[in-house]
């Protein structure tokens, strides 16, 4: 008993002669085409989405994620971060350009920063000690302070947020001093 004739997945006609098999279907060799540009796909390389074939070019143009850094299509490995995608070698600190894969980073207005650059270049500095404030800040006297740096100039006791104080040379001074 002879095999049943193969039916082309595109034109639905019987295939005699050369057969191209892809995506669990048979095709006339010129009928396996990219859904977007209708170009026959003859290379072994193509992409598919939901069982629909795309040539390499159309996949890059219409379906591949775009790198948030260079805006080019990503065909291969991608880093998903900050609601977007990056080429692995493009996911770097905005300031020092060090690689961020596998490291902690901070998103500042859609740009990734390593924790060191974020602390040293982006974070506000404490008025008392001059070091970066990477957690909650106390805002008083037109400046930002570490919570424990906002203390009485004279006795050194930390000032509470609801505590009244005097100002002496731009620094807080508790009422008991």
Structure commentary:
- The chain is rod-shaped, with a radius of gyration of 31 Å.
- By secondary structure, the chain is mostly beta strands.
- 9% of the residues lie in helices and 26% in strands.
- Strands 1-2 form a two-stranded antiparallel ribbon. A two-stranded antiparallel ribbon has the order 3-4.
- The protein starts with 5 loop residues before the first strand and ends with a strand.
Order of helices and strands: EEEEEEHEEEEHEEEE
How many helices? The count is 2
| End-to-end Cα distance | 107 Å
Share of residues in helices: under 10%
- What is the strand content? 25-35%
Main sheet? 2 strands, antiparallel
- The largest beta-sheet arranges its strands as 1-2
Instruction: Give the quaternary arrangement of the chains.
Output: single chain
Question: Over all CA atoms, what is the radius of gyration?
Answer: 31 Å
> Helix/strand-derived class?
mainly beta
Mean pLDDT figure: 89
- Which parts are unreliable, with pLDDT below 50 for 5 consecutive residues or more? none
Estimate the global geometry from the Cα principal axes: rod-shaped
Number of strands: 14
Question: Features of this protein?
Answer:
single chain; mainly beta; two-stranded antiparallel ribbon; 2 helices
Give the topology, please.
Layout: E1 6-7, E2 14-15, E3 20-22, E4 25-27, E5 47-49, E6 52-54, H1 56-63, E7 79-81, E8 84-86, E9 105-108, E10 111-114, H2 115-122, E11 137-140, E12 143-146, E13 165-168, E14 171-174
Antiparallel strand pairs: 1-2, 3-4, 5-6, 7-8, 9-10, 11-12, 13-14
